[in-house]
Amino acid sequence: MKLHLSQKNDFRENFDQKRREMTENITTISAFPPPPPFYKLYVHYNANTAATTGTGGSSSSNNSAVPSPAMPPVAQSSMSGGGSGGTVSPMLPPPPLLPAPLPPPLPPQQGSTYVQFGQNYATTDVLPPLGEETPQLYPAGDIEPIKELKKLNRSILFNYLQLLETLIENPSTYKTKVDDISLLFINFHHLLNSYRPHQARETLISIMTEQCNQKKLNIEKLNNSLEQAKQILRETLNAIIQKPIDQQPTINNVNQTNNNINNNNPFSPPPLSISSHLPGSTTNLHLQSSSSTNQQQQQQQQQQQQQQDGCNPNWVSNYLNLLSEIPRV
Amino acid sequence: MDLLTQLQDKLDHLFLVFGTCIGVLQRDAPPSSFSEVMNNQPPQLTQEQLTNADNWNSQTKHMALQVIETTKLIESIIESLPGFQRTENEQYQRLKALNHESKLLQQQLQDKENENDLFVDQSPKQVNPLTTNQST
């Protein structure tokens, strides 16, 4: 059905009106809730809005835009580059203008107060005194706390018995006795609270003592482990040096022992390839004669899995020197 | 739980026991008989009344026992409190000394660890010639 021209105009007007209403609605209704107000603590909010709206232009405006001092230098350089007339590379998009957050405020000084969740708190934690209406029953200054606590405990029990007698004989005068018992309890609690800092310090002392002991133990263990490792290596290398050349394993000996080992242990490693010729080093290996045949056999069993091809004994002595040179604390 | 907190809890419990005992006494105590008060004659009670009196006596004894036990427990906790031998200044000096010792030990531990790391790093480099074919 074809629409008449007037109908078309009416339809267009209605459509425009509805679009205007929608845009008006969009400006008044936000899709997302506003951010919490404490974000203003970290941003020069007023300076940024002045930079972006007071000058009447966007960030791409040329000379009139003044970068805010909180803006990062990259953003500032991009803005200045835009202002100088086309020095910004057309290939790269300008970086987003994210204002740098403010540094956090300094912590409150000792002795001052601070506000936390709407309440004032003091930086120094001091137990408040009992007050004028609540007299202190135990003496001030240096006291024996255990003795005073026992006295208060017995006074509480005695006053309770007196309260029972008062209730029997003269019930109308119960209030004074109840006030006395309350006073005793308040003093007891105040005395206990006054020893909380002492308890905290003692707890800290015990924790730190335990930590020191643990560190000493760890140092001792590390020392022992290192010494054991060095000793094992030293013994092994000494055994290598002390073994005469004719008793060192050859291909035939090694293969035979490896076959024996393989026959006995299916999980043994594959045989190593060892050449029987040790060029230029035969005389150097006769450093010391072995002490006994048993010792030599034990050393030979230990070294059957080592490769001794091209063994240069100089590195052995270098290594032993290194072991002795490692600084000991 | 530390001893001071236990002591505070027991103290609060004692206060509660005091209030409970007095409340029960006021609410549930049986009335006295006139013959007992006026003529000092023992009351003539039925069997049921005798049973109730026995129950009441045991209840009062139980309440008194609670008070005494709580008080004794408080006293035992007070006696087991750790010694207050050190003054505040002595504690602070001890803390400073411990802090200094802890830093020294930490440095020693770090040095020992570095020494171990050096040993672990250098050992394979020196032992590797044994495992490779080298012609000298």
From TrEMBL, chain A:
Domain of life of the native organism: Eukaryota
Feature: compositional bias, Low complexity: 53-79, 250-266, 295-308
UniProt main location, coarse: nucleus
SUPFAM superfamilies in UniProt: Mediator hinge subcomplex-like
Coiled coil: 205-243
GO terms of biological process kind: regulation of transcription by RNA polymerase II
Alphabetical keyword list: Activator, Coiled coil, Nucleus, Transcription, Transcription regulation
GO cellular component terms, semicolon-separated: core mediator complex; mediator complex
Protein family membership: Belongs to the Mediator complex subunit 7 family.
A single MF term (Gene Ontology): transcription coregulator activity
Role of this protein: Component of the Mediator complex, a coactivator involved in the regulated transcription of nearly all RNA polymerase II-dependent genes. Mediator functions as a bridge to convey information from gene-specific regulatory proteins to the basal RNA polymerase II transcription machinery.
Polar residues composition-biased segments: 282-294
Subcellular location: Nucleus
Region (Disordered): 53-113, 250-312
Ranges of Pro residues composition bias in the record: 91-108
Protein name: Mediator of RNA polymerase II transcription subunit 7
Subunit structure: Component of the Mediator complex.
Automatic annotation (TrEMBL), chain B:
GO molecular function: transcription coregulator activity
InterPro entries, sorted: Med7/Med21-like (IPR037212), Mediator_Med21 (IPR021384)
GO CC entries: mediator complex
Positions of region (Disordered): 108-136
Gene3D superfamilies: Mediator complex, subunit Med21 (6.10.280.10)
Subcellular location: Nucleus
Principal location: nucleus
Keyword Signal belongs to the record: no
Protein's GO biological process: regulation of transcription by RNA polymerase II
Polar residues composition bias: residue spans: 123-136
Key words of the record: Activator, Nucleus, Transcription, Transcription regulation
PANTHER family hit by this protein: MEDIATOR OF RNA POLYMERASE II TRANSCRIPTION SUBUNIT 21 (PTHR13381:SF0), RNA POLYMERASE II HOLOENZYME COMPONENT SRB7 (PTHR13381)
Family of the protein in this entry: Belongs to the Mediator complex subunit 21 family.
Subunit: Component of the Mediator complex.
Described function: Component of the Mediator complex, a coactivator involved in the regulated transcription of nearly all RNA polymerase II-dependent genes. Mediator functions as a bridge to convey information from gene-specific regulatory proteins to the basal RNA polymerase II transcription machinery. Mediator is recruited to promoters by direct interactions with regulatory proteins and serves as a scaffold for the assembly of a functional preinitiation complex with RNA polymerase II and the general transcription factors.
Name this protein carries in UniProt: Mediator of RNA polymerase II transcription subunit 21
Organism listed in the record: Cavenderia fasciculata (Slime mold)
Gene: med21
